Amino acid sequence: xxxxxxxxxxxxxxxxxxxxxxxxxxxxxxxxxxxxxxxxxxxxxxxxxxxxxxxxxxxxxxxxxxxxxxxxxxxxxxxxxxxxxxxxxxxxxxxxxxxxxxxxxxxxxxxxxxxxxxxxxxxxxxxxxxxxxxxxxxxxxxxxxxxxxxxxxxxxxxxxxxxxxxxxxxxxxxxxxxxxxxxxxxxxxxxxxxxxxxxxxxxxxxxxxxxxxxxxxxxxxxxxxxxxxxxxxxxxxxxxxxxxxxxxxxxxx
Amino acid sequence: xxxxxxxxxxxxxxxxxxxxxxxxxxxxxxxxxxxxxxxxxxxxxxxxxxxxxxxxxxxxxxxxxx
Lengths: 253, 66
Known about the structure:
Chain A is of the alpha+beta class.
């Protein structure tokens, strides 16, 4: 038995479903209501129903396959009009229930599409250089006082230097985020990512994401470059455009 | 008069493969939520966030192989 995997909300007029299949190459379809549309494809409920999702969401390979397919559809749609992506694994049991939900959320969805129209999401991450993360040289202990006291003093000095560096990194991350959020339409901080998941070097001190007018991208990127230059201790990387995942929430005013 | 925002849409590519963690940051996080008659969407997301910690080891193994 099949369900409908829902990728995003768009304006029905903008939706171009050709040339891009959905999950497992199923064709995309539009479920419309009063000018709004939800882009869907059919999925097997053995895999995407309640039990199937419980099982499959723990399989990182499955999760990655679905996330990549979902993102490709969102990107394709975003090239043709404002697109509010849905969260992963939003699966409806039928078209009627989907249309009923769309009717309920119609006004908020219109507001979300207006909010993101002509805008894209940009990721900006800041990393502290690994060489500066290495433990600071401990101070020489003063003469006298014995080996034990000297050891403790070295430990305390090293700890204080590490704490001071961490505090400075946090301030730098705040500064970079505030500067970017003020030139963007909106900005938010996501949790820094675990190095074991990403394989990045150094410590991620900022995982920021910003809603940027498509006509202002050059200025935004220039701001990123300026921040990188004025904060030599950090590496700053921008990546985009993304469909506006983080700014299309129905609950946001 | 043509609205520049409407006619000049950027290319979303992506130019290079998208990092899984970046995808999960966004696909599991915010975005539009439609409640009701939706199969386990929200509960499933919470489950994934709890389980992700337990999967770090297997992901690391995968990443070494790339």
